[in-house]
Recover the amino acids of this structure.
């Protein structure tokens, strides 16, 4: 389609050029050009959810770090979240999975990395709430970072479920908050950043609110897995 321009002469003799209504079609690759409509798809909502989830994860990481230091000082002391043999923070904290990263003869608790990572996610969520237009590569890195955090928390969850055979209540809260965090950043990458402009099915997925159903099933499946594995032992 060719662009049609019209010219008109002003009173002072200058020529003004205007374009027809169809001369500048919207470029879907431009930020905000093809955003999904509705409050649930707006930057304020999706980044607010990401901020809350990241803040909860950061708070839990601080608590887990404090409990790690407490166990280091008093190895035989029980922690406040030691409910029973199944719900036991100290059992999980004393396993090798809780600090499997070693460097120069030192071991680093996972919670310390959680503080660093979640601080970054909190900052990104706050920036998103300002409606700042960030580079595309930054948004892609944010999504992959949240995916890495999700895989990391799920690896720890499966280790607790099937290897350590004990669950840490704070770790469970961290896993669920990381899950919601990933859901929020995934939503933002499509609705606000338009990262998948060529994948129309993703936009349809969010436009029809299918993500709400998938997210709900996801959370319920995690809860059901825990209940089936341990059942009454959780409160026994």
């Amino acid at each position: 389609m060719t662009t049609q321009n019209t010219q008109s002469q002003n009173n002072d003799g200058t020529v003004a050029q205007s374009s027809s209504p169809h001369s500048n079609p919207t470029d879907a690759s431009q930020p905000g050009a093809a955003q999904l409509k509705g409050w649930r798809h707006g930057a304020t909502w999706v980044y607010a959810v990401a901020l809350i989830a990241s803040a909860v994860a950061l708070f839990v990481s601080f608590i887990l770090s404090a409990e790690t230091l407490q166990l280091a000082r008093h190895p035989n002391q029980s922690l406040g979240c030691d409910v029973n043999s199944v719900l036991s923070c100290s059992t999980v904290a004393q396993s090798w999975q809780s600090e499997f990263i070693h460097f120069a003869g030192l071991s680093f608790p996972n919670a310390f990395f959680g503080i660093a990572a979640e601080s970054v996610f909190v900052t990104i969520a706050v920036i998103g709430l300002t409606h700042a237009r960030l580079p595309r590569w930054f948004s892609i890195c944010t999504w992959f970072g949240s995916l890495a955090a999700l895989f990391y928390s799920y690896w720890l969850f499966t280790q607790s479920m099937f290897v350590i055979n004990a669950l840490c209540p704070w770790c469970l809260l961290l896993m669920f908050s990381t899950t919601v965090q990933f859901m929020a950043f995934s939503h933002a990458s499509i609705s606000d950043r338009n990262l998948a402009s060529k994948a129309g099915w993703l936009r349809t997925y969010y436009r029809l609110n299918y993500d709400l159903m998938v997210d709900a099933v996801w959370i319920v499946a995690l809860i059901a897995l825990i209940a089936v594995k341990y059942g009454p032992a959780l409160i026994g």
Summary: Residues 1-9, 11-33 have pLDDT under 50 and may be disordered. The two ends are 72 Å apart (CA to CA). The domain at 35-98+110-234 is CATH 1.20.1440 (de novo design (two linked rop proteins)). The beta strands are 5-9, 15-19, 101-103, 106-108.
